Amino acid sequence: IIGGAKAKMGNFPWQAFTNIHGRGGGALLGDRWILTAAHTLYPKQHNEQSNASLDVFLGHTNVEEIMKLANHPIRRVSVHPDYRQDESNNFEGDIALLELENSVTLGPNLLPICLPDNETYYDLGLMGYVSGFGVMEEKIAHDLKYVRLPVANRQTCETWLRRKNRMDVFSQNMFCAGDPSLKQDACQGDSGGVFAVRDQNTDRWVATGIVSWGIGCSRGYGFYTKVINYVDWIKKEMEEE
Amino acid sequence: SDLLAQQLPQQLTSPGYPEPYHKGQENTADIQAPEGFAVRLVFQDFDLEPSQDCAGDSVTISASGSDPSQFCGQQGSPLGRPPGQREFVSSGRSLRLTFRTQPSMENKTAHLHKGFLALYQAVDLDECASQSEAGEEDPQHRCQHLCHNYIGGYFCSCHPGYELQKDRHSCQAECSSELYTEASGYLSSLGYPQPYPPDLRCNYSIRVERGLTLHLKFLEPFEIDDHQQVHCPYDQLQIYANGKNIGEFCGKQRPPDLDTSSNAVDLLFFTDESGDSRGWKLHYTTEIIKCPQPKTLDEFTIIQNLQIQYQFRDYFIATCKQGYQLIEGNQVLHSFTAVCQDDGTWHRPMPRCKIKDCGQPRNLPNGAFRYTTTMGVNTYKARIQYYCKEPYYKMQTRAGSSESEQGVYTCTAQGVWKNEQKGEKIPRCLPVCGKPVNPVEQTQR
I need a labelling partner for B187 at 20 to 30 A (CA). Which of A33, A45, A48, B148 fits? Predict the structure, then answer.
């Protein structure tokens, strides 16, 4: 997380710390599912078949402490069928689910996040929180950091991308957040973590996006998987749980 | 001559009959009947010269065991002693007829008497009658008890309780295996009320259907040889019911009426070589066995269709009030039936009804329960309330029902915890999403 703050225990109780092909993040859904980005499991430009171990940790804001709380074995991995590992500039379908072998016991430091149910969560300027154990500037994080970012204008992000002569796919299943003028962003190691929005009506936190990709860190906009477009798939995978 | 009598009559005549007989002759005919028959002889024609006391011509008929009879003269004539229509039946198997004429110096034609024509035949000998006539003269050939004549013979039989011996005439007391199977009847010692015979070893068995009980009632007189000081030293009557001795009796005191509670009674009557007592007699009757009225052991047991009286083969069914279950020992019963046995007892004891216990309620993952009735009591009608560990979990509820309704479980009469809506399934505690206890707060403006 660039330009963020250190999270306190219980600020983001859904935050998972993964170590698969390097650091990554995720969010707890229910009591035995982890929502994450597909590319944390199958990174781009990493063609060989993945045999990496799936280490998932939950329940703390400190990397050393969270790892002491024991790894949660994974029963099943489900990657969205639209994800293309071999297309380095296409993060379409960058979403995956990890089913834990055992349900976790919820508590103040370990709670699930909700799924979105309407498009208002993607309104321009709506502020959301992105948290993660990824790099901050040039340092690796030891503690969970978070940053507060606004949902950006889709056309602006598109224009910004093309002006940089980037051919990366920015599809309707993604949204962008942040501001080139801000020195705040997610970065490597935050992938899979969620863009969380607090619903003022229900006073619930909702995972509207998944940290997916960006051009460098803190130099513009960040791109997120648009979770609402995948809710049906998620529910199907979770067997309507 | 020797003649054999047959069942069809045969003729016997004097020599030369019907021509006048010659004087000075003597002829004898021995008529023999087959075994079991006697000889019957009837004169059809009789014409002998009459004389004083038949000292002249005569026919003499003699049979063993009876005095000879002498006849002379003519049938229908007052002179001499003609036999008339009289039948002569031998007392034994044989009869002898002797025809004797006196020698005479007179002209043969002066005596024009034809002689006789007789018919003889074999007729059944009534040995029994002859025995009674004979009295005690020939005890070896006399039936000791009863005599039965038949054509050509006779046989002997004995009074009840006695057995015909090998000599086929004498009887000896036999009572070693007397069996009585009628529902009621009389039994008595041999000869009752006359003195019973010596050296008896009698066994009277009464066997009636299962489910009946035998009652014994002794009649007067009751008299079995006794001794003042020693209990039944000479003769005694032992009574067994179902193989168990229920009494030994002697003396002149009639035993009390006995309710044997059994369908199998044996009476053993032993006598010594002497004595002159008159014996005993009893009247036995039967009554169907009854079982005691079933009584519940607790207020929760119900006896279905309770009868006023239960007898052999009747049964009753016991059930429990709602919320209770049948217990026999430590065994839970699904049903209970007891049958009245032939000994008047129930084939199994009355069960108890124990309140249903639903056992410890199932643990609710990510939740717990509390008793809304007495804590720790899990019996019928006990009630608990499940709840989830809030705020992290919330009970899954159906539309229109509250969490408290969903979480209420009652111990039912079936012995299971049940919720009105969910049945036996326990509720689920679902994770609460998006509600951090300590959400991030922005303070700096």
Answer: B148
Tokens describing residue B223? 């008299």
CA gap A196, B435 in Å, rounded: 12
How far away is chain B from the Cα of A205, in angstroms, using its nearest Cα? 4
How much is the ipTM here? 0.92
Q: Report residue B270 as tokens.
A: 């032993």
Query: What mean pLDDT is predicted for residues B396-406?
Result: 76
- Whole-angstrom Cα distance, residue A104 to residue A26? 15
**A137/A153: higher pLDDT:** A153
Task: Retrieve residue B126's tokens.
Answer: 């009534």
Name the residue of chain A whose CA is nearest to B391's CA.
Answer: A107
Q: Point out which residues pair with B325 in neighbouring strands.
A: B354
Rg of chain A in Å (alpha carbons): 16
- Inter-chain residue contact A206 with B434, CB threshold 8 Å: yes
- Phi/psi at A79 (5° precision): -105, 140
- For residues A102 and A81, is the Cβ–Cβ distance under 8 A? no
Residues 6 or more apart whose Cβ sits within 8 Å of residue B125: B33, B36, B37, B38, B92, B93
Contact predicate A224/A195, CB 8 Å: yes
Cis status of the peptide bond prior to B294, with omega within 30 of 0: no
Contacts of A114 in chain B (CB under 8 A): 433-434
* A67: closest CA of chain B, how far (Å): 21
Could you give the C-alpha distances from A238 to A92, A169, B161, in angstroms and in order?
21, 28, 100
Q: Which residues of A touch B (CB under 8 A)?
A: 7-14, 29-31, 103, 105-108, 111-115, 129, 146, 148, 198-199, 202-206
Polymer length in residues for chain B: 445
Q: Residue B217, CB half-sphere, CA atoms under 13 Å: how many?
A: 6
Active-site residue list of A? 39, 94, 191
B439 CB burial (10 A radius; 0-12, 13-18, 19+) = middle
Alpha-carbon gap, residue B410 to B420, rounded angstroms: 9
Q: Which of B275, B9, B230 is nearest to B122 (CA)?
A: B9
Tens of pLDDT, residue by residue over A179-201, are 999 899 999 999 999 999 999 99
Chain B neighbors of A199, CB-CB under 8 A: 434
Rounded CA gap, B108 and B225, in Å? 83
Show the beta-strand stretches assigned E in B289-344.
290-291, 301-303, 310-311, 315-320, 324-328, 331-333, 336-339
DSSP at A219: S
Quote the CA–CA distance of B281 and B204 in Å, as a whole number. 12
Reading the block at residue A167, the tokens are 């051919």
- Residue A134's pLDDT band (cuts 50, 70, 90): very high
CA B374, CA B383: separation in Å to the nearest integer?
Answer: 8
Q: Are B262 and B241 in contact (CB under 8 A)?
A: yes
